[in-house]
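Help needed: design a sequence for this.
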């Protein structure tokens, strides 16, 4: 009888002979640790599960979809795209129709469609770091070269520097997260305009680069913080992406979307797989959208919790007596530091049952905003860890 270990080593040596693309050699699948601990504050999820009302509507709509599951789903997801257009019109005041909206399995897939349509060999995608760590993976997976500029020390983006970088690099895709992950920084309208204007000066095969503003966390923005949706009419190469994973408490449903000109959306329709969005996903997302008002009430609670977490962190002292650095945030997370040994702080919190994220520039840690009980557990654990280190 072959021992399980022998089977494993046979499997390992077989996989060593697979013709993996050379640029994938040594790469690890993306993802934060999924650990079973009491307080999960590491992947910017919404801590409130959907209410029983929302669950009932989803169950009803999913049952209806299941009854027709012998057929492929609506390939164009027309009804869902119209629901998303209506929601975004309500949220931003900008008139939108389903032809201006694209939907896929999370904004991750939407962004992959963007790179499939507008990136590719001989082309570059540009962003400004620190930013969302999946962006280079979309570029890698579409044979697009990846170029990163920098953000300022306070994580803002200098418009003149951004414009100069765009003209110098000549990317076909420019990705800007606002509010940015992992820093929480939202971009002012003037910066996005400067980026869009600079893009108009770049020639890509007789056209101009596309600019994608990733607004995954937009619903958490503070009053007065703009959405780039307001700029869509002005710039036909601009797109804004959103997701139901955060504000809508539907990370498990996998539904992200993009809004842009219908020509932009048509380009994405070319590269999507047929029937990429299952009937079950379309039904669940449409049902959740019908409850947007009760779901948004939780967003207000999370915003208030975020602001009080920022205030509390600003009162804390590092082991050497200096105050914390706490980044301005318009998202449902806060980046704070800077610790001499951030891993020790992260581990100390984990030992106390609180999982946060070791991400961002050296010395910084990111905490997602949870329920008030979870944030109290975070504050208590961090206080203990800092006392231990003093
Ligand atoms: C900035 C940003 N964009 C996009 C996403 C992807 O979200 P999803 O694929 O769940 O829509 C995330 C997820 O954390 C994010 O932080």
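Sure. Designed sequence:
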């Amino acid at each position: 009888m072959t021992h399980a270990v022998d089977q494993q080593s046979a499997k390992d040596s077989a996989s060593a002979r697979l013709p993996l693309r050379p640029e994938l050699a040594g790469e690890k699948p993306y993802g934060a640790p999924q650990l079973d601990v009491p307080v999960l504050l590491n992947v910017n999820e919404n801590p409130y599960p959907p209410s029983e009302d929302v669950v009932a509507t989803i169950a009803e709509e999913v049952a209806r979809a299941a009854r027709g599951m012998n057929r492929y789903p609506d390939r164009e997801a027309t009804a869902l795209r119209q629901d998303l257009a209506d929601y975004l019109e309500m949220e931003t005041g900008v008139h939108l129709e389903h032809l201006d909206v694209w939907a896929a399995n999370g904004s991750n897939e939407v962004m992959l469609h963007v790179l499939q349509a507008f990136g590719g060999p001989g082309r570059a995608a540009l962003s400004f770091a620190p930013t969302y760590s999946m962006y280079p993976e979309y570029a890698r997976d579409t044979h697009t070269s990846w170029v990163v500029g920098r953000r300022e020390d306070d994580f803002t983006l200098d418009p003149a520097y951004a414009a100069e970088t765009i003209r110098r690099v000549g990317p076909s895709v420019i990705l800007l997260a606002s509010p940015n992950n992992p820093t929480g920084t939202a971009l002012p309208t003037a910066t996005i305009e400067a980026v869009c204007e600079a893009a108009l000066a770049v020639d890509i095969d007789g056209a101009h680069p596309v600019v994608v503003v990733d607004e995954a966390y937009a619903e958490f923005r503070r009053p007065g913080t703009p959405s780039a949706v307001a700029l869509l009419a002005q710039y036909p190469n601009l797109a804004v992406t959103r997701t139901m994973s955060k504000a809508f408490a539907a990370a498990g449903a996998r539904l992200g979307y993009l809004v842009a000109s219908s020509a932009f959306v048509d380009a994405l329709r070319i590269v999507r797989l047929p029937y990429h969005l299952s009937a079950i996903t379309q039904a669940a997302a449409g049902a959740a959208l019908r409850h947007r008002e009760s779901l948004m009430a939780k967003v207000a609670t999370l915003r208030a919790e975020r602001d009080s977490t920022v205030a509390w962190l600003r009162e804390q002292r590092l082991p050497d007596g200096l105050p914390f650095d706490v980044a301005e945030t318009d998202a449902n997370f806060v980046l704070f530091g800077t610790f001499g040994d951030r891993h020790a702080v992260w581990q100390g919190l984990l030992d106390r049952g609180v999982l946060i994220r070791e991400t961002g520039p050296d010395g910084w840690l990111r905490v997602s905003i949870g329920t008030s009980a979870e944030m109290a557990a975070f504050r208590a654990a961090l206080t203990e860890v800092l006392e231990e280190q003093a």
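The chain has a mean pLDDT of 95.
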